[in-house]
# Entry
Amino acid sequence: MRLDVVSLFPEAFTPLLNLGVIGRAFAAGLAELHLHNPRDHAVGRYRKVDDQPYGGGAGMVLKPEPVFAAVEAIPRLEPRRVLLMTPQGRPLQQVDLRRWASSCAQLVLLCGHYEGFDERIRALADEEVSIGDFVLTGGELPAAIVINGVVRLLPGTVGSAASLEEESHSALLLEHPQYTRPADFRGAAVPEVLRSGDHAAIARWRLEQQRRRTRERRPDLYDRWLRSGGQPAPEDPSPPAADP
Ligand code: ADE
# Structure
């Protein structure tokens, strides 16, 4: 997959290239990262990328011309999606990452600017993406999150295809607890079932833990899981009504 990032701070993305599983995916050529700075496309003596807002107000606004020029200079691969990172976007979900990883040859990520961008920049984007209901100084960290989440799903990136397969079946449930040695750590013992060698019992225990954790910590996700066909735990007091 080809990833193109348009950002005033392209250096923010170089750590991705050296980081664990994702770094190895880039090194192996499973994904290519291309960085584009609108400043390189700005004209005039000062290569201005921002300007004062029409109508007045504090702060500067990212100008449309250098962003359009940067995007228009990017080679096109199809299918491609252009994502604009903004707190006004649709909240990012695992299904989005899976959709982009499985259906795009190219993703273009446009990073917003802490004081705002010209409204006409929105026309470049196929989708606007938020990573949560909080405001950061720019779209760089959100774009890095999307890149991490997409690249780990590319075939060949994560060691075991089985673990991604498992994850996709239970994507709406939180992970079950995991343990490694020692069997007893400062009095906290590993649950007996995990040491039993009974694989069916282990699978039942894990699913039960996932259900319980999700119901307690993320009732919103648990409802979605039930609505998508998940079977409620026997002790579940009030299963929500199914979607029509
Ligand atoms: N830019 C600033 N804050 C953001 C957020 N929460 N999501 C996406 N882009 C952003």
User: Anything to note?
Assistant: The mean pLDDT is 93.
